[in-house]
Design brief:
The chain is of the alpha/beta class. It folds into two domains: 25-123, Translation factors (Elongation Factor Tu (Ef-tu), domain 3); 128-299, Nucleotide-binding domain of ferredoxin-NADP reductase (FNR) module (Rossmann fold, 3-Layer(aba) Sandwich), CATH 3.40.50.80. The chain has seven helices and twelve strands. The strands form three sheets. The protein has a six-stranded parallel β-sheet, sandwiched between helices. Strands 1-2-5 form a three-stranded antiparallel β-sheet, with no helix packed on it. α3 links the parallel β7 (135-141) and β8 (170-177). α3 (146-162) packs parallel to α4 (184-199). It is globular and about 55 Å long. It starts with a helix and ends with a strand. The relative contact order is 0.12.
Length: 302
């Protein structure tokens, strides 16, 4: 038995030593941004840190807990000179991080007073393959939108510098959310990308659909009253917020009709139930003919 156990144990100990070594490397918090509804953005720098779109890191804050590591998806793009995460305050550890960063105080916080942070990673995810396709469907549910913040930022930078070398030609973006609280920090990014595409006369590059799944009658009435306005009253975007859940069968059939003979990458960050639905739709809407349209499903869950 020991011959079978010693190999995996040796690899495990090596992995723990590498993680300990990386966690000791100095991380500098360069900026803390407080977003509405108790969401904070930490912008950090670390020597030798290299990332790709959609990756995630483990974060430890000794001032809050000396042992706890928590995974967070990177919301910055590889083209930026820092890496960032967005933290929604929903528990004891995130509340402790919120207070340690001085976000509970009104006065300006000095940089030297910010807590020490240990970072392990980054680690890869399926979202890294986004730029391998000409057409992609990005589906984020709730906080699952964070990997696509990194993707869309990177698209924006690539489009600004050299759009001709970008293989990706069309993005269909879907965001499913129960309420409007999570829209605040992400809407600015969509507005920037929307404006950039319009300036370059390529507004069709990004098609996005935002769905509010937890709506009531008063919200629906407000939606009807303001539906004819130029910009959406919730997000400030030209694309109107939708209510309910998408009809995935219709969405897949529409995309298949618009992109015949192509490979469409379907990327999800969300719950397992939605993953099963999208996987089935990807299979049923892919053609048997190798020259037909094929949907390639990729997912990540946490």
């Amino acid at each position: 038995t020991w011959k079978w156990v010693v190999g995996p144990m040796f690899l495990y100990l090596c992995e723990r030593l590498v993680r300990f070594w990386r966690s000791q490397q100095k991380v500098v918090i360069t900026k803390v941004v407080i977003h509405p509804f108790k969401t904070i953005e930490l912008q950090m720098m670390k020597k030798g840190f290299k990332m790709e779109v959609g990756q995630y890191i483990f974060v430890k804050c000794p001032a809050v807990s000396k042992l706890e590591w928590h995974p967070f998806t990177l919301t910055s793009a590889p083209e930026e000179d820092y890496f960032s995460i967005h933290v929604r305050i929903v528990g004891d550890w995130t509340e402790g991080l919120f207070n340690a960063c001085g976000c509970d105080k009104q006065e300006f916080q000095e940089a030297w007073k910010l807590p020490k942070i240990a970072v392990d990673g980054p680690f890869g995810t399926a979202s890294e393959d986004v730029f391998s396709y000409e057409t992609v469907m990005l589906v984020g549910a709730g906080i699952g939108v964070t990997p696509f913040a990194s993707v869309l930022k990177s698209v924006w930078y690539k489009y600004c510098h050299d759009a001709t070398n970008l293989k990706l030609k069309k993005i269909y973006f879907y965001w499913l959310c129960r309420d409007t609280h999570a829209f605040e920090w992400f809407a600015d990014l969509l507005q920037s990308l929307e404006a950039q595409m319009q300036e370059r006369n390529n507004a069709e590059f990004l098609s996005y659909n935002i769905y509010l799944t937890g709506w009531d009658e008063s919200q629906a009435t407000h939606f009807v009253v303001h539906h004819e306005e130029e910009k959406d009253v919730i997000t400030g975007l030209k694309q109107k917020t939708l209510y309910g859940r998408p009809n995935w069968e219709n969405e897949f059939k529409t995309i298949a009709g618009q992109h015949p003979g192509s490979r469409v990458g379907v990327f999800l960050c969300g719950p397992e139930g939605l993953a099963d639905t999208l996987n089935k739709q990807s299979i049923s809407n892919s053609e048997a003919d190798p020259r037909g349209v094929h949907f390639i499903f990729n997912k990540e869950n946490f």
